[in-house]
Amino acid sequence: MFLNGKQSSLLLCSTIVGGLLFGCTTTEESVIKDQDTSSNNEMLRNTEFAGSDGWWVSNAIITTKAGEACIQIDNPGSQTWDVILGQGGIGLGQGDSYTLAFTARANVETEFTALIQHEGAPYTQYLNENIAVITDKQSFSFTFVHTEKSDPKTEFQLQLGAKIPANICISDVSLNGENFKIVTETAAVRLNQVGFFLNAEKIATIKNDSKQPVAWHVENKNGKQLLSGKTTVFGLNKGSGEFVHNADFSAIKEDQEDLVLIVDGSSSHPFQINDDIYSELKHDALGYFYQNRSGIEIKEEFVQRANLARPAGHPNERVSCFQGTDSKGNNWPGCDFTMNLTGGWYDAGDHGKYVVNGGISTWTLLNLYERSLWVDHASEPFSDGQQAIPEAGNGVNDLLDEARWNMEFMLKMQIPEGKKVFAPVGNQEKNITNLTLTEIDASGLVFHKIADERWTGHPLPPHLDTMKRSVGQPSTAATLNLAATAAQCARIWKEIDSDFSQQCLAAAQRAWKAANQHSEIYAYDNFTGSGPYNDLKLADEFYWAAAELFITTGEDKYFTIVSESPVYLATPVGDASGDGDLFWQDLSSAGTISLALVPSKLDEKQRQMARDNIVKSANNIAKLVVTEGYHIPYGPEQYPWGSNSNIVNRGIFLTYAADFSGDMRYMQTLAHGMDYILGRNPMDQSYISGYGSNPLKNPHHRFWAHQAAESSPKPAPGALSGGPNSISFSDPIAAGLKGNCTGQTCFVDDIGAWTLNEITINWNAPLVWVTSALDEQRLQ
Fold it and tell me: Which partner from 268, 509, 515, 746 sits 20 to 30 angstroms from 724, CA to CA?
């Protein structure tokens, strides 16, 4: 991820599963060939290498100039696919002829393989040519007829690995032929495919070009009409580029199952009306964390299906600092100690564990618990014994048990006293290929992440991951994440487990001291096999950590930092820009929420200011609903990476606005956001696995990898996809969408589309939060 997750910029060949399947599960499907009336049916994008847009490169550095791409291979690896230049989004039609051509040269004589193959297992190869290159330019051309069954999911690759270090340059690349694609039509009537509360507003969005209202009615499973009416014409929805109508059937307020909305002859997915629509989803959403635990066996009695159980992944995680050359050519000396880093949660689709992202995820779960302590009408979420986890029945709230699993891991990531490491000190972003590494006393600092040293492929259950793992470097951001969450931990566990509470507080104070001593140690995108979580603006982390420490300790030194911070009492702007939205790279509003919620030495007038700011943000968020064709509290025309997480995170502010103002209409706005997540969107897609008629099926995940291999399990229910991303097209699947989608329509449910369809702890944490709040309130 990048904006709301981590940027996974490089993958190995076996990781890439893709092609381009337009649309989603549908009511109608047709097969066509791209029609191009020109004499040259070019199937590749950016063949002139105007930058690297549309291409992906693994384990190498690409530079482009004057229509040529040069790939600097410093670490060729042991397999041809260890270094790849490639492009997906290609389809081959049975019986059609194709011509691949390119020009190549290198600084030394070497070889590589040119492939056209099926994207994903079993990686069927339709063209495989060994290429010998010399220092002079040579032109190559291959023509073949695709005699096998039409395949809409193929990719072009130059596999450049397993030879010698070299600089290989490619130009004049072309794949000529008719691009075979499967085109699907989504259902015209879009609504929450799970259902609606009895007293909720019940609205559907309909794609319909009529400029006049059209008739609709709701039928029960016996075909009886319960309600009828006319649509309201919304008009052009800029977020999707569609002309849409809305149908409001809120007048139905009794328990119903298997209802269908029929509009102008088109039918919706079936839905229900009752007050239990989130009672199971909140448990499945929290179960995501248990099932992505590292270092522990995932047992059958705690999962929804037997094939979701697995042996422990990385059960004895003893690692040291990365030693060797990173992907940008920097040499790291390593360090003279190892650490036991067993435990924690796998962050996302890979097997990395990150303090910057684990921090916001842990804080979000703990904040949900703290809300029940300090909001009078809020009930305790996930009380002991309610959640299917091994710790159930131990006398401690199950939500706290789950959060503690990762809290203990983050504590282990703190560097012991007296240990020295090498780190890039100061902002060196413009010089990342030549970092200046400085040896420092790292006492109290926190390692940024632990991950595989190279990207692994699909499928790969964590217990079968044998790739060497290491910690990259400490970072100021990771250190402040620990300071904040450990301070939160200290006050929550004070009466539950005083020893653990004291351990958390001591770690938080050590981390705070270390972060102030080393305030400019930044992470960069230079370690192959893991995302960077790079962040060069840390004022929000300093404010957040100081706020949590002030609340817990009451010490004036922390309040001084809080009150003088440029983000003091900051909350999201709440408009279409998304400025200030809560995510791992902007945590200022997390500090404000804690100051507004938890009693402390903060002046009551200032505490009320924090609450007023939250209500102001919620007001701005709520205003967006009527401006958006899909009736959601979100409004950008361009959707960022992890856009779905922005919607659910906004639900936290809407809930607190309801808590602080007493106005429950904010909860209805949150419900509208969940309507979008569960199907009222232009993709007619529930973005949560296991929920709705057209649920998320193929998230980017190495264990839940059924699309890559039938022997791998389908995803567990309750996982939230990152969703539409119209800004970053850096994976091979998304690259094929660029220029062919608008905002909300830039999505494909495909395991290879990590910029669209990855699942992560920091997206599921707010899903747990908002579904719990909705199930508690039920819009009564």
Answer: 268
